[in-house]
Amino acid sequence: MNFGTAGTALLLTVLGRLTITKYGGNFSQSYGTVTLGSAAAQAAMYSNNAQVLAVTGPVLPDAANVLQGSGQYGYASDLQLPSYPGASLPIRIGQVIQ
Amino acid sequence: MTTYYYQPASGNWSDTDAWNTAANGSGDDASHPLPSDATADLNGKAVTLDVSPTLAAIQASDTVGQLTVSGSRAITAAVNYSGKLTGGMITLPNGTALTINGQVSNSGSGYAIRMPAESNAPITISNPGGTAISCSYGRAIMGFSTSTGAVTIVGDVVVSGGIYAIYTTGAANHSLTGNILKTGATAAWLCNATSLTINGRIVGYDPFYTSSTTINWIGTHTLAADEQV
Asked: What residue ranges do the domains of chain B occupy?
């Protein structure tokens, strides 16, 4: 499975959850990028080789631009780091047909 | 109000008085072209598609009614199949071609569109911005073994049931410009073809079942917060 081609890249923004599992064949991620569009977004990919999609996290403000203390805009008392837990597996590639 | 027209006897779509407002032929006769808001029912008859009709819908619910494409044709209408015919409601013999401008829906255990093993007939289903294929049972497209007709879909593929809404195992280059939105248990597309290019969102567990197809997933897309499994 090719995530994007030389002619048209795959640019995927995930606000929910992306999970990809490869059971056979090959991945090609040369032209694919996944961006987690929020701190709640999740991505998990399983492959038996190193070819997996590049995933970039949500854009966070610089530390100097993050205010501490509580407020109506959701400021935290301390700087927060997003986490990307695993998920179920919606895409299976390369299975042998029964 | 939708007027239904039925095939009282087997024959060509364009035959004089090939259609009737009553299933038993006791109503008013009609000929091609039917009114644009009409629904044509194959009524269990064998019909040859020898023209390119424009109407609201074509439907079949019988196990024997079948529309066979002759030449290169276009159907501008919704296609709705709720029957059990695994021989297909619409058949594309070798050397033919079909474009459906509208939604194809399959809600019976049979197949809405059939491409025989020896067929090279391509099919395009186009409903830009809407649902191109809706499958809740059976298969919307069945390409038998070595059929090499390319499948081109513009619009969403919505799968809530069935056993592979699209089944293609011959050498061909298929494409989907639209989303796969799948909630059914079985894979949406069993594809052992040359290639399958998808430019759309892929939502749902197990969208593909393949062992040999080069799948190209392209384009710029956003998976919404509720599009997860």
From this structure: 39-217
